[in-house]
Write a structure and sequence with these properties.
The strands form two sheets. This protein has a six-stranded antiparallel β-barrel with strand order 1-2-5-4-3-12. It is elongated, with a radius of gyration of 31 Å. The protein is of the alpha+beta class and 277 residues long. The chain is built from five helices and twelve strands. The protein has two domains: 60 residues, no CATH class; 180 residues, Beta Barrel (Thrombin, subunit H), CATH 2.40.10.340. A hairpin with a 4-residue loop joins β3 and β4.
């Protein structure tokens, strides 16, 4: 208490000046409309900047939760897409068979916990496994495009053979022509893959979109693969070799979707039986 009294005694004139200055400013603002409006605008701008800075800080620390929610919402919406259901022509008389609109694709949200891009055989590890419904040979895609195929599954994790794998073969087509081919990776870098034996009569252009083909029983049809970056005619025949720039940035993958084709087993069983006849 004694120190407080000494402080006021020693700084009496300074404190009195500040008190009178504050009172003077109050009188000016109270009796002058222009100064009052200007002060309020300035204080609003200052408080707005403070709140914006605070919001930016809190948003940064909440990024993980926000990303989780957005990824889950993305999967929920994708599961509701028309392409997720087995289509039936409207010209066919309908019956009470509910399987005609049965869901063909089911999407599961997953996070990449490990990955490689600098090997000949690249893999990713996801944080979901058999306990969440993941099985071998399910497709994996991202918001940018195709990622790979599930190869090994444990209870809560799965290993995915990346598109950047020397043994990967993906049925694709040139979107504007519907010309089917097989996409392979030659190990050059993580941005490029190749398509072979594309008929040279097609008027290819740099930037033409490449998507997954209906010939695949793993990947849904029409998923982005990449764009044509260059092409050259093979000497002695009438085909192009095409270099595709992949749409997926494999070095920045975080959230992906595991795709379960619920009719895959039925399709492959029928195809195997037909080949054995």
């Amino acid at each position: 208490m004694r120190n407080l009294i000494l402080f006021f005694t020693r700084n009496y004139y300074t404190l009195l000046f500040l008190l009178l200055e504050t009172f003077a400013v109050f009188l000016i603002l109270q009796n002058n409309h222009f100064q009052r409006a200007h002060f309020l605008n300035s204080s609003n701008a200052l408080s707005g900047n403070i709140y914006q800075t605070y919001s930016g800080i809190t948003d940064y620390f909440n990024l993980k939760e926000t990303n989780d929610l957005l990824a889950q919402e993305n999967v929920t919406l994708r599961n509701q897409l028309r392409q997720s259901y087995r289509g039936v022509s409207v010209s066919i008389p309908t019956t009470n068979d509910t399987s005609k609109n049965a869901k063909k694709y089911v999407y599961l949200n997953a996070k990449v916990v490990n990955s490689s891009t600098n090997r000949r055989k690249n893999y990713l590890t996801l944080n979901i496994g058999s306990n969440q419904g993941v099985k071998n040979e399910m497709a994996v895609i991202s918001s940018e495009g195709i990622v790979g195929i599930v190869r090994d599954v444990s209870g809560n994790f799965c290993s995915v053979m990346s598109v950047l794998h020397e043994n990967m073969r993906v049925p694709v087509n040139i979107k504007k022509y519907g010309e089917n081919s097989i996409l392979t990776w030659d190990g050059t870098d993580e941005w490029h893959a190749t398509m072979e034996r594309i008929p040279s009569h097609l008027k290819l252009l740099k930037g033409d979109k490449i998507v997954t083909s209906s010939y695949s029983s793993i990947f849904p049809e029409g998923v982005a693969v990449g764009t044509i970056e260059s092409f050259e005619k093979i000497a002695g025949n009438s085909f192009f070799n095409v270099t595709v720039k992949l749409s997926t940035n494999f070095k920045r993958l975080s959230y992906v979707k595991v795709v379960n084709n619920k009719m895959k087993v039925e399709q492959e069983k029928l195809e195997t039986e037909s080949q054995n006849d």
